[in-house]
Amino acid sequence: MEVTRCAWVGQDPIYQEYHDKVWGRPVYDSRELFEKLCLDGQQAGLSWITILKKQQNYEAAFANFEPEIIATFDDAKVEDLMLNPGIVRNRLKVNSIIKNAKAYLAYIEQGNDFSAFLWSFVGGSPKVNHFESMQQVPAQTPESEAMSKALKKMGFNFVGPTICYAFMQAVGMVNDHTTDCFCHN
């Protein structure tokens, strides 16, 4: 039986699997949210499928996104990462994951809950949109702009409002499955 998916998915089995089982499903684990935020930052200027296909390489290169380990990465480790063909070898993007790990740790070491902070931008529960086509889906919203500003103030980077909105979609803070998609409900 043929299922109807969001128009952006296409025929790639990797994209279909991601769409059907990951994208738009609410994530509340702080460390998992940290990982997904970092991966969304790697997407800047690229298509998401590029990063999706490299996700396992990123997990291997960045210690399964354990912030405590990433925060210890030094210049020698950055140079090593710049030689890794399994990730996007952009120095700013590599350094952004390290910078974000340090910002994340600083935030939680103050006794804060990263998940609660991120989810506060949508009132703590998923915002369900009812877009009929992808053309109606915004690239950013006031919520993603506010999240971007707050994250930048905390020391995160590669977290512009468009990246934040893509992140919010990916982790289910907003449900942007189109109304004809079998995942919308």
TrEMBL record:
Entry GO MF terms: DNA-3-methyladenine glycosylase activity; metal ion binding
An individual GO BP term: base-excision repair
Keywords: DNA damage, DNA repair, Hydrolase, Metal-binding, Zinc
Reactions this protein catalyses: Hydrolysis of alkylated DNA, releasing 3-methyladenine
Entry-linked InterPro entries: Adenine_glyco, DNA-3mA_glycosylase, DNA_glycosylase, Tag
Assigned EC number: 3.2.2.20
Binding-site residues, Zn(2+): C6, H19, H177, C181
Function of the protein: Hydrolysis of the deoxyribose N-glycosidic bond to excise 3-methyladenine from the damaged DNA polymer formed by alkylation lesions.
The protein's name: DNA-3-methyladenine glycosylase I
